[in-house]
Amino acid sequence: MSNFWNIWIIIPTLLVIFGCVVLLIACTKNSTGVEEGKSMGHSFDGIEELNNPLPKWWSYMFYVTIVFGVVYLLLYPGLGSYQGLFGWTSANQSVRSMEESKAAVETAKANNHLSQYDAEVAKADAKYGPIFDKYLATPLEELVKDEQALNVGKRLFINNCAQCHGSDARGSKGFPNLADGSWLYGGELADIKKSIMDGRKGMMPPKGGLPIEDSELKGLTEYVVKLSGREHDAALAAQGQGSFMKGCFACHGMDGTGNKFMGAPNLTDDAWLYGASRGAIEESIRDGRAGVMPAWKDILGEEKVHVISAYVYSLSNK
Fold first, then answer.
1. Between 273 and 84, the higher pLDDT residue
2. Which residues are annotated as a binding site?
3. CA gap 69, 79 in Å, rounded
4. Same fold, 138-199+295-316 and 200-293
5. CA–CA distance, 267 with 253 (Å, rounded to integer)
6. Which residues contact residue 36 at a Cβ distance below 8 angstroms, ignoring those fewer than 6 apart?
7. Which of 63, 59, 317 is closest to 187 using CA atoms?
8. Any residues with CB less than 8 A from the CB of 62 and at least 6 apart, and which?
9. Please, what is the average pLDDT of the chain?
């Protein structure tokens, strides 16, 4: 934080505290010229105003609040870059990567000075670590039959995966539906775990990186529509098949059923990651698509990924 923002925080904060003290002292003094308890000389709606002092309990409470605020600011961070006498921090807010975060935690451990977040994580790991170790030692084929484990996996999924895939795991445009049984990289237990552990980077270059002219896009789109079993223009689809054979089959297969080893979608089913309309399909062919799912092995650890994998598998394998 720059010195400007430090000053911007410190000066207004101290001015407010000082202003409260001045205002409270001023309000406890009788500066009206009227004896306390006597009428101020006016009334409204039958209610007469008297020159009564502030209640003592209220004034004392206000003083205590001010003192508490000053002591708090001295003990804990709150005034710009001032770290407080306790040196307490809520989290490692200056880190910009997982590597920096891990290094900061190790440094804090060495100095016996964990942030509150790191301390709570360490406490949770000590309490729940043995439970997740037990889950990790259980084969996924057995774990998918454990209702308690699946409930744990569901909570982990909602906390970490729902932002993209939705709380019901049905995804949205550009984010796969995990409950429909259609899998780009394979839907077996090992495939799902690998996807979560290592992440995925799916990329289709514009026009597949092939010598396809703009004039061929309509026909190629119509051929893809035909592959999915929908009503189509037969003549236009026949033209598009020739474009498809220029090289699209290298990823999607001669029959259009895709390739899980490359993450190439199956064009013959009814699962469309970026939309099933002709416009969306043509856009995908013309401009290409790029999708990235981050690797979770360093964020959650294999123990939690193991449980999430079982839960995700259960969504499409009831």
1. 273
2. 161, 164-165, 204, 248, 251-252, 293
3. 12
4. yes
5. 9
6. 30, 51, 52, 53
7. 317
8. 20, 24
9. 90
List residues forming the annotated binding site for heme c: 161, 164-165, 204, 248, 251-252, 293
Helices (H), the chain: 3-28, 56-75, 98-110, 116-136, 140-143, 147-160, 162-165, 189-198, 217-227, 234-244, 249-252, 278-287, 302-316
pLDDT tens per residue across span 83-114: 778 777 776 766 677 677 777 777 777 777 76
Main-chain dihedrals φ then ψ at residue 238, nearest 5 degrees: -65, -40
**Letter string b/e over residues 45-56, b meaning 16 or more CB atoms within 10 A of that residue's CB:** eeeeeeeeeeee
| b/e map 256-267, b = 16+ CB within 10 Å | bebebeebbbbb
Beta strands 200-204 and 47-50 are unpaired
pTM for this model (two decimals): 0.73
Joined together, the tokens standing for residue 140 give 């996924």
pLDDT of residue 80: 72
Q: How many residues does the chain have?
A: 318
Q: What is the pLDDT of residue 1?
A: 56
Domain ranges of the chain: 1-29+51-88, 102-127, 138-199+295-316, 200-293
Task: Please answer whether residues 288 and 175 qualify as being in contact, where contact means their C-beta atoms are separated by less than 8 angstroms.
Answer: no
| Sign of CA pseudo-dihedral 212, 237, 282, 224 | negative
Domain 138-199+295-316 has CATH 1.10.760.10: yes
Domain topology for 200-293: Cytochrome Bc1 Complex; Chain D, domain 2 (1.10.760)
